[in-house]
Amino acid sequence: MVGTKVLLLLNVFSYTPAPLSGVLPVAIGSLLSVAFMNLNLSYNSVGFYQLSKLVCIPFTLMVQYVAYKQTVSRAVQLTLIPITFGVGYATIYDLSLNPVGLVFATCAVVATALAQIFTNTYQRSLDCNALQLLYHTSPYISIGMLVMCPFFDDLNALSTYVYTTPTVIRISVSCVFALGVNITNYLVLGKTSPLTYQVLGHLKTILILVLGFTTFNKPIDMRNLLGIVIAMIGVIAYTEVRRRQSSPTLPTNNLQKS
Predict the structure, then answer these.
(1) Rounded to the nearest 10 degrees, what angle do helices 222-246 and 74-91 cross at?
(2) Tens-digit pLDDT profile for residues 63-117
């Protein structure tokens, strides 16, 4: 919230009014997505958490078809198979869960898919760019997190924690990075689609695995490597299919003249 106000004062973007009816769905969706994904990770194993993130792709396609009559081509659907299988094979090792965790995982999938669809849809309908929409939604997201904090966080630990200078610096840096992540999230969702955004999210998972091998000397796991290769084949295929579908087709007579 503070970050977007600072950017507005620095004339990084211009203010554009937006009705509350268009801002609230995005804000609530974003708030619930973050909250339930964190609870999902807290109550389930890492493997089940990764699986729930993969489920977001088919659920998003279903919601877009049912609510907006939007479909993707068969070629795009086929590219999603190696992406989901590769990422799942590389990251899912244990699948332990419990009833409460299953509820949180289900809510996380629904909230995440709706938040991404709303962010994409309302940017277009409100005629707002990423920073303008984030400026409107961030106060409501902040208020929502403050309201939810007493129910899910240890307030006694927070109140008794000694905040040293290095800690405050780390928190401030984390806030700056969080602002950057939110801006890029809104940018990608506004310029592309929720499906492309999720494919990029899985590409990020692949890059994290690769950095673990190359930068942090994590032991090389052949299962990870095979999953990365399969997923990257899917990402490259998805990118190429989308590029061809978005490229304008030249008229036949123009091709004959050239």
Answers:
(1) 160
(2) 999 999 999 999 999 999 999 999 999 988 877 778 999 999 999 999 999 999 9
Quickly count helices (H) and strands (E) in the chain: 11, 0
13-67 pLDDT tens trace: 999 999 999 999 999 999 999 999 999 999 998 888 999 999 999 999 999 999 9
Cβ(185)–Cβ(119) under 8 Å? yes
- pTM score, whole prediction: 0.87
Checking 32-37 for CB contacts under 8 A at 24+ apart, the result is 32/107, 32/111, 32/115, 33/108, 33/111, 33/112, 33/114, 33/115, 33/116, 34/145, 35/111, 35/145, 35/148, 35/152, 36/104, 36/107, 36/108, 36/111, 36/112, 37/108, 37/111, 37/112
What are the tokens at 199? 């494919």
